[in-house]
Prior knowledge:
The radius of gyration is 27 Å and the shape is globular. Helix content is 44%, strand content 18%. The longest helix has 32 residues, at 413-444. The strands form 4 sheets. A 6-stranded mixed sheet has the order 3-13-12-11-14-15, with helices on both faces. Strands 6-5-4-7-10 form a 5-stranded mixed sheet. Helix 8 (256-265) packs across helix 18 (493-504), helix 9 (321-329) crosses helix 11 and helix 11 packs antiparallel against helix 15. The protein starts with a helix and ends with a helix. It is an alpha/beta fold. The protein has 18 helices and 15 strands. It has helices at 3-30, 51-58, 77-81, 85-104, 163-167, 170-187, 233-243, 256-265, 321-329, 337-342, 344-360, 371-374, 381-388, 396-405, 413-444, 458-462, 466-478, 493-504; strands at residues 33-35, 38-40, 113-114, 126-134, 138-148, 151-160, 196-202, 206-210, 213-216, 248-254, 271-277, 281-288, 301-305, 451-456, 485-489.
Amino acid sequence: MDNKQTFFFGVTSGVALVATVQYLVSLLATKPVVAGQQFISHKDPLRKRPKVLQSQMDSETPNRPTSALPGSLLSTLDTQLTVPSSKLQKIVLHMVSEFKKGLQSDGEQIAMLPSYVVNRPTGNETGVYLALDLGGTNFRVCRVNLEGYGNIRMSQAKYTITDELKTGAGTKLFDFLAECVASFCRDQNIPTDVKTSLGFTFSFPVIQSSINTGKLTQWNKGFTCSGVVGVDVVDLLQASFKKKGLNIDIKAIVNDTVGTLIAHAYTDPQTYIGVILGTGTNAAYVEKVDNIRKWGTGNGEVVINTEWGAYNEPSILPLTPWDKLLDRRTNNPGKQVFEKMISGLYLGELVRLILVDLIKAGELFGGKGSDELLKTHNFDTAYMSRIERDHSLSLSDTRQLLEDVLNVPNTSYDDRRIVKHVCELVGTRAARLSAAGIAALVTKINRLDACTVAIDGSLFEHYPHFGNRMRDALREILGITAQNIVLEQARDGSGQGAALIAALA
C-alpha cells in the first residue's frame, strides 16, 4: 500500500470511527429511560434524568420537584410561551395591514413616520463629516471619513451628560454639547472656520417637517431639561454652535434605526430594512412615496421609521399573564407592548415573574426563593444570556449565578434545568416575534426575491442563538423564499449613518 492509499485509508477509517462513536452517544442520549414502571419520553424537555446521574448531582438537595406534574404551572409553560408557525403567519398579515394604516393617516397604532431621507447611498460617497449621538448618559462626537467603495474611517470621543445637565435649562445642555464639539475639533485638528456638515442623531421623540428640523414632543431616559419640549432642537444646537464660533451646518436630524439602514446600505446596496434589537426595538425600511397617502402624491422613495414597538393587538399577539403583569407595572401600560415582548429591557423581568410564580406554586427551589429574586427588574437579560450559554453537565455557571448572585440557597440540578428552559422559551419567543416583524416588512415592500436586513443591538449581537432562531422562524413563515432574506449584523448607525445622511442631504 503506497503513501496515498495509506493516507486515504486513515482518513476514511477515522471518519467511520467518529461516526460510530457519535451514533452510539446519540442513541444513548435519546433512548427512553424506564424509571421503575414509568416511561419517560426523550421529547419532554423537563424529563427526569436516570437515577444514577440524579443522585450524583442532587445528593445535597433531596426531594426536590423534578418534573411538571399534570395540571401544574410547569406543565403549561411550553404551550403559553411557544409561538407556532400559524400564529406567526397571523401576526405577519396583521402587521402588514397596520403598516398600511400608518401610511394612510397620522395617529395610528404604528406611526410610520417619514424620515425625509429620500436617498440611499451608492457606496461612492466621499468626504469628511461630523456626527453627534445623543441618547442617554453618554454623548458621542464622531469624525467620519467616507472614502468611497463602501469604506469608512472614523474617530470618536465620548462625553458624560451629568444629572445636573439632564434636569437643568435646555440652553445649558446644548451649550455643553457645542463645547464638546469644539473640544473634539481642537483635538482632531478640524478647522472651525471652514463650514463642516453634521448629522445629529437625537434619540428622543420628535416631530419632523424636513430632514433638518425636529420638534421635541417629550423627554424620556431621565432628561427633563426646560425650554426644549415643542422647540426645534436643531435650532437650539445651531444657536449654541454660533456662540462657540463653530462654522458647522446641521444637515440632518437622524433616528438611530434609519441611520442603521443607511450605514449598512453604504456597503450593501440590497439593504432595504434596518432593525434595532437591543434595550429597545424599532425598524425602518424603504417605501415608495406614492404609497404614503398622508403625504399626498409623489415620486421616488423615502425611509420610513415604523416605531413598530408600539404594535399592540391583544387578539393577535400571544400575550401571557406574565406579559400583562409586566405591562401593568411599567410607566406606560398598554403602550409599546410589542417592544415589551422582544427587547432586552424587559426579557429578564419577564423571566423573573415566571420564576416567582413557579416558586409560589412549589415547583421551583422547593418553594423557597430569595429576597433578591423578588426585587423588580433584578433578573437582568444578561443573566438569561449567561444561562443559555451554560452547557456544563451540572449547569455549574447557572448554579453560581442563582446561588451567589441571586442568593437562592442550594439549587438542585432540576431547578437549574427549569430556569434554563424558561430562559430558552422567553428568548426564543422574542426571536420569533422579531422575525415576524421582519417578514411583515419584507412582504409589505415585496422584496422576497432579495433583501438585506441590517440589525444593530445587543440582543442580535450577543444573545445566544438569537439570530439563528430568527432565521428558523423566517423559513417557517416565508418558506423557500426566506433564503433570499439576509440578516446581517450592523454597527454604529447613530454615528456612520448620521454622517452618511448628512452627506446625502
